Amino acid sequence: MLVDHHCHLDFPDFSDDLAGVVARAGAAGVGLMVTISTRIRAFDQVLAVANQFDNVFCSVGTHPHNAHEELDIPVEEIVRLSANPKVVAIGEAGLDFHYDHSSPDAQEQGFRNHIAAARETGLPLEIHARSADEQTIAILEDELKSGGAFPAILHCFTGGKKMAYRAVDLGFTVSFSGIVSFKGAPELREIAAELPLDAILVETDAPYLAPVPFRGKTNEPAYVAHTAKAVAEARKIEVEALAAATTNNFFKLFKKVPRSAFASVEGA
């Protein structure tokens, strides 16, 4: 079975058929989902979704687009909220210089706050990085040097080879979304083929970025199976081997998720 460690089930796209979305994921072999927070002040909505399903968990954090809105929320509050049994990750946080909805300074401060929370809690940080390869790596290197290790995933990876290899060298995980299946993403498939198998994950980022053959439609966790297929093909391995490896990688990172939640779906 597979895991979708990064989706947004609280978004309006799923409000009319949330139970159906989760059921279709299970039917497609996706046993666990983590629905990702984009605003701490809307965390209750994310948690409410996770609480509806035994195999759905969540994160707590502020997307870089919204960083300027929540700089007044201290690290201690993120840590406090993360104590909920359903919260298994921090973020998503990071840098997005493609849209610049928040200033670079606000994004960096938010990013570093979330790194501090990940370090304190031991929960993996879901990192959003777009058009900010060098700056993201520089902050990660600085934080490792100044504060010590923390677990993290470069989610929905679209950066270059240099960033991917450096992230793995630093001990982080790289995650691939449906973009890896797009015709115009040969370099991304090459990266997915070359990185160590124990350093990768797959995800949807639903409702965005549906993989081929659903490109242009609303993405949902069930479609992570197609992303896994694309990565397996790039690596020239069976999709079952890719699923087993990425699921194992998930549990190594997301230590708070009980394996029993996955087992119950497998046995359903």
Topology, element by element:
Blueprint: E1 2-7, H1 18-27, E2 30-35, H2 43-51, E3 56-60, H3 75-82, E4 87-96, H4 104-121, E5 125-130, H5 133-147, E6 152-154, H6 161-169, E7 173-176, H7 186-194, E8 200-202, H8 224-235, H9 239-253, H10 259-266
Parallel strand pairs: 1-2, 2-3, 3-4, 4-5, 5-6, 6-7, 7-8
Helix pairs in contact: 3-4, 7-8, 8-9
Q: What does this protein look like?
A:
By secondary structure, the protein is of the alpha/beta class. The protein is 42% helix and 16% strand. It has ten helices and eight strands. It has helices spanning 18-27, 43-51, 75-82, 104-121, 133-147, 161-169, 186-194, 224-235, 239-253, 259-266, and strands spanning 2-7, 30-35, 56-60, 87-96, 125-130, 152-154, 173-176, 200-202. Strands 1-2-3-4-5-6-7-8 form an eight-stranded parallel beta sheet. Helix 3 crosses helix 4, helix 7 crosses helix 8 and helix 8 packs across helix 9. The protein is globular and about 45 Å long. The two termini are 12 Å apart. The mean pLDDT is 96.
Which descriptors apply to this entry?
single chain; 268 residues; alpha/beta; 8-stranded parallel sheet
State the end-to-end distance: 12 Å
Order of helices and strands: EHEHEHEHEHEHEHEHHH
Question: Kindly state the mean pLDDT as a whole number?
Answer: 96
Largest sheet: 8 strands, parallel
Structural class: alpha/beta
Query: Tally the helices: what do you get?
Result: 10
Radius of gyration: 17 Å
The rough form would be described as globular
Strand content: 15-25%
Could you name the ranges where pLDDT drops below 50 across 5 or more consecutive residues?
none
How many individual β-strands? Answer: 8
Taking strands numbered 1, 2, ... along the chain, how are they ordered across the largest sheet? 1-2-3-4-5-6-7-8
Percent range of helical residues: 40-55%
